[in-house]
Amino acid sequence: QENANAGVTCGRRGIFAGLNGGYSKLTNDANTAAFIDSTTRNVAASVGYQNRNLGSLSLVGTYSKIDYDDPPSGVPVVSNSVAQSGIGVTYARKIGNRLNGSAGVNYNWIDPDGLTDSASAFGANVDLNYRASPRLNLSLDYTLSNNASTAADAAYVRTGQFRFAGDYRLHFHLAPPLLA
């Protein structure tokens, strides 16, 4: 898999805006699998308001174009490409010194070419991050979304993802020997 992403965010007096773009090339090396090589190009833009007491509220728009390359032989391919777009709202806030979180809701449209019908659905995400100590960070995430599929027999899939992660940082302090 090859990936390239770039983004810029700027703001003034509580108003902020951001623009991100990306490219991804996914190659399937398994000869008998029914997965398709794909090239994805995407762009996302956001605009919002933030302050120290209330947190941040942003409106986000996304667009992705997924082109399927080199389909596996013997498997009927549902679509040659998929266009995916969406709009959503995200709220993020720091809660005390150790806890911060965000929540969002979005609506996505998936439009495959070929024989498959278009689809649209709501999605959501919730993220919590807790700094237990200066060395230990814990995170809890849940995402529900529609995504373009890399399987030859499906244009899109509905996914729910739950993730719990911990990050412990080791710090080594090397001091020079005392010179007398």
Describe this structure in words.
With 180 residues, this protein is an all-beta fold. Helices cover 0% and strands 67% of the residues. It has no helices and nine strands. The protein has strands spanning 2-12, 15-26, 37-51, 55-69, 81-95, 99-112, 119-131, 136-148, 156-168. β6 and β7 form a beta hairpin. The chain is globular, with a radius of gyration of 21 Å. The mean pLDDT is 83.
List keywords for this structure.
0% helix, 180 residues, nine-stranded antiparallel sheet, mainly beta
Write the layout of secondary structure elements.
Elements: E1 2-12, E2 15-26, E3 37-51, E4 55-69, E5 81-95, E6 99-112, E7 119-131, E8 136-148, E9 156-168
Antiparallel strand pairs: 1-2, 2-3, 3-4, 4-5, 5-6, 6-7, 7-8, 8-9
Structure at a glance:
The chain has 180 residues and is mostly beta strands.
Structural class: mainly beta
Distance between the termini: 56 Å
Low-confidence stretches: none
Q: Quote the average pLDDT.
A: 83
Indicate the proportion of strand residues: over 45%
Radius of gyration: 21 Å
What helical percentage do the residues reach? under 10%
The number of distinct β-strands equals: 9
Biggest beta sheet attributes? 9 strands, antiparallel
